[in-house]
Design a protein that fits this description.
Blueprint lengths: L6 E3 L5 E2 L15 E3 L34 E2 L4 H7 L3 E2 L3 E6 L5 H14 L4 E5 L4 H10 L7 E5 L3 H11 L3 E5 L16 H18 L2 E7 L9 H5 L4 E6 L6 E9 L7 E7 L2 E4 L3 H7 L8 E8 L2 E13 L7 E4 L3 H15 L6 E7 L11 H13 L7 E3 L2 E2 L5 E2 L4 H10 L4 E5 L11 E5 L2 H9 L3
Parallel strand pairs: 6-10, 6-11, 7-8, 7-9, 9-10, 15-19, 17-18, 19-22, 22-23
Antiparallel strand pairs: 1-2, 1-3, 4-5, 11-12, 12-13, 13-14, 15-16, 16-18, 20-21
This protein binds thymidine-5'-diphosphate (TYD) and magnesium ion (MG).
Length: 454
Amino acid sequence: MAKDLSYSCNACGATFSKWSGRCDGCGAWNTITEDKALASGPKGKTLGASRGKAISLTDLETQEKEPPRTEAGVGELDRVLGGGLVKASALLVGGDPGIGKSTLLLQAAARFARNGLKVIYISGEESNAQVQMRARRLGLEKSPVMLAAATNLRDILTTLEAEKPDLAIIDSIQTMWADNVDSAPGSVSQVRSSAHELTTFAKRNGMSVIMVGHVTKEGAIAGPRVVEHMVDTVLYFEGERGHQFRILRSVKNRFGPADEIGVFEMTGKGLAEVKNPSAIFLSERGTPAPGSVVFAGLEGTRTMLCEIQALVAPSPHSQPRRSVVGWDGGRLAMILAVLESRCGVPFTGLDVYLNVAGGLRISEPAADLAVAAALVSAREDAALPSEAVVFGEISLSGALRPVVQTENRLKEAQKLGFTSAIMPQQAKQPAVSGIGLRQAVDLAGFVEEVFGAR
Ligand code: TYD
Ligand code: MG
């Protein structure tokens, strides 16, 4: 009988039935190793060959009790968790190195400990002294959080079994080392099997576990992605290193809404929650300048206003520059093409720079119209009215499409003192009073309405 062997790539996690020098999945060399942990079951027999025990079945109606939750008492964090930390749940917090994951989790650990949970923080990256130093800096040195610097998973599980904490924080999953898997810490098989051991241990013992996962540069993902399906909740901690704002985003949550965000600010004393992000993102805005547009955006269930800035200048190069920060480069090219071919606003021979202020990253198509407005405003050297917000999706034909949650966007704009909104025409008019609507059917109509006949 053929032996069932499994090989996987340490860089991207692709699996193969035979070894090769180069991974077909990601193109990396020498990254494929045999997966001993995942090799065939006892003596290569299929599972159906021997009898297991029968599982008890239930119906869809009988309700299990809601699992208990503990709130951290930090609104931004609790909302992203869907209303607090669920007992016996497994979470993954991913993010770039240095973005503030350890800081966030140490602060969260202290909060949960204060609210009655027994919390153990295990660091595989820093010594006890380093974590204690950070705790002092955050003013948390008196918190009843227990601390250990360890990487051997067997020792960690033994300790957790004896201590019986309510919450264990593992910083980070890439540094954990399971001695029954024969590959280096940080490799896909190690990360996968460590996360699996921790998750099953947590479920069995009624403990919650939060694992930190670094997003690596090339494979983006080698670490956290292979773990995502095992855990209940996946949060990503994002932000630009040079900016103080950080966004905690839930991309998967079995116990709450996905795509919810929490906004934090990195200060000298750790992360502070930002309760009114729009006000902060707009606070640095000076007098209205050409190329600056306020976009009424939506992140998760929250509306958030932010500033989109464009600069258009004659290019000294034969190949003009298109540079974009905080938005999608492909989408920018599309908007430029639509402006050029449907509205007669050419950008040939012009360098174009686009920036979302405050280090925010926007992925909503609803920002199309705000981007187009910023581009035309910069090109024409004509500022938009300072009390206007802009949103709307642009299609390739140049038509404007209405976007979701128009009313919430308008309400947020109104709350922050904006008195008009430039947006697509829509069948059902939003029921918001006190804000003037300037609506257009297509992009050409919008350019004419806002910048006049050209
Ligand atoms: P850290 O939590 O170590 O990041 P990660 O665990 O994601 O790798 O924090 C990284 C940065 O945060 C570090 O460059 C210093 C900065 N920082 C502050 O600005 N204020 C603080 O109070 C702390 C603790 C860190
Ligand atoms: Mg860290």
